[in-house]
């Protein structure tokens, strides 16, 4: 089957995570992605080979000094035959290198230019790394035990989420058939993903609370629970789930969602006591056949060992493959490019 994005040519001027992750998802789906790197390369090459591979498989690499006349001329040649350019740099650098639609439209009126920044093109150059954005957007304040300090999730939630959003914006503008400028900021993406928390505050004045074991604001019980061994994630969103769970756990009462919400502490005490009778793995094996959403907490090696089907080979690297499954299409994963491996590549006709 022809790749979904076959024939789409994307240029990337990206560094570290958000931009490269966005364009790698496009490459996995068949886009031809050319990574434009400074002479010394994307700084993420210095982090480690596996790190770089996890964000840059299946791309081409061209070195350009965008501060030079020759580099700008070569950029123009590449833009002429490309559908989109995705950039994640500081706003001042994006403008200085001429990586905006207003600067590049003379080469290609239909080029789509995506600027992925920390706070927006007009918000200045304040540093905007993932963990900083999680602090600024309120994510860190919502994470962790209420009695402890704010906590950062153990992975780059802001960068990854912003990368996916940038890829969506890029494709949306290509589908429109028009060139133009698209902007995505890490801060705005994370605020958007706090959707129901934000709505509760904006409409009802209810600020979200940090709850023990990551408990959900509305659904009860929906959180982590200690078992006799390990921890169980239990997510009861409606009365049918509760009926099945309560019957298996030997809990009486609390039949309706509203009652469970009103009597949160009583419900949690009853559930905690019941789950202490078995291991997290034991509860998972008992509740899954009943259709109750529950899973024992795994670490990453355990999760990968349990799902070998998501692991792919890309050259010498073993990586997690594309999460978008298109029936009839199998991505062709290839190794990440060597720095400047495609410097002599002629622009596509």
TrEMBL record:
Keywords: Transferase
SUPFAM superfamilies according to UniProt: CoA-transferase family III (CaiB/BaiF)
Species assigned in the record: Nocardia halotolerans
Signal peptide: none
PANTHER family: SUCCINATE--HYDROXYMETHYLGLUTARATE COA-TRANSFERASE
Name assigned to this protein: CaiB/BaiF CoA transferase family protein
GO molecular function: transferase activity
One Pfam family in the UniProt entry: CoA_transf_3
InterPro entries: CoA-transferase_III_domain, CoA-Trfase_fam_III, CoA-Trfase_III_dom3_sf, CoA-Trfase_III_dom_1_sf
Keyword Transferase carried by entry: yes
Organism taxonomic ancestry: Bacteria, Bacillati, Actinomycetota, Actinomycetes, Mycobacteriales
């Amino acid at each position: 089957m022809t790749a979904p994005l076959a024939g789409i040519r994307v240029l990337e001027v990206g560094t570290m995570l958000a931009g490269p992750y966005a364009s790698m998802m496009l490459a996995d789906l068949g886009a031809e992605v050319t990574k434009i790197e400074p002479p010394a390369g994307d700084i993420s090459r210095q982090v480690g080979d596996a790190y770089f591979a996890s964000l840059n498989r299946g791309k081409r690499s061209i070195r350009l000094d965008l501060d030079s006349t020759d580099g700008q001329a070569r950029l123009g040649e590449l833009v002429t035959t490309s559908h989109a350019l995705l950039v994640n740099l500081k706003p001042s650098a994006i403008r200085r290198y001429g990586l905006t639609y207003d600067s590049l439209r003379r080469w290609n009126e239909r080029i789509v230019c995506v600027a992925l920044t920390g706070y927006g093109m007009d918000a200045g150059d304040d540093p905007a790394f993932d963990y900083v954005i999680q602090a600024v957007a309120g994510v860190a304040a919502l994470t962790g035990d209420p009695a402890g300090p704010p906590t950062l999730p153990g992975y780059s939630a802001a960068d990854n989420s912003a990368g996916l959003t940038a890829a969506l914006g890029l494709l949306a503008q290509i589908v429109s058939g028009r060139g133009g400028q698209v902007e995505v900021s890490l801060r705005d993406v994370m605020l958007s993903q706090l959707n129901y928390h934000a709505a509760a505050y904006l409409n009802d004045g209810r600020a979200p609370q940090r709850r023990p074991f990551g408990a959900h604001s509305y659904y009860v019980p929906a959180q982590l629970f200690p078992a006799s061994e390990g921890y169980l994630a239990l997510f009861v969103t409606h009365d049918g789930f509760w009926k099945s769970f309560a019957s298996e756990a030997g809990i009486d009462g609390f039949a309706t969602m509203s009652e469970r919400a009103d009597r949160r502490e009583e419900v949690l005490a009853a559930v905690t006591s019941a789950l202490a009778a078995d291991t997290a793995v034991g509860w998972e094996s008992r509740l899954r056949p009943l259709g109750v959403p529950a899973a024992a907490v795994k670490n990453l090696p355990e999760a990968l060992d349990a799902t070998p089907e998501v692991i792919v080979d890309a050259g010498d690297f073993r990586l997690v493959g594309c999460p978008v499954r298109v029936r009839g299409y199998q991505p062709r994963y290839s190794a990440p490019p060597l720095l400047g491996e495609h410097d002599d590549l002629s622009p596509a006709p």
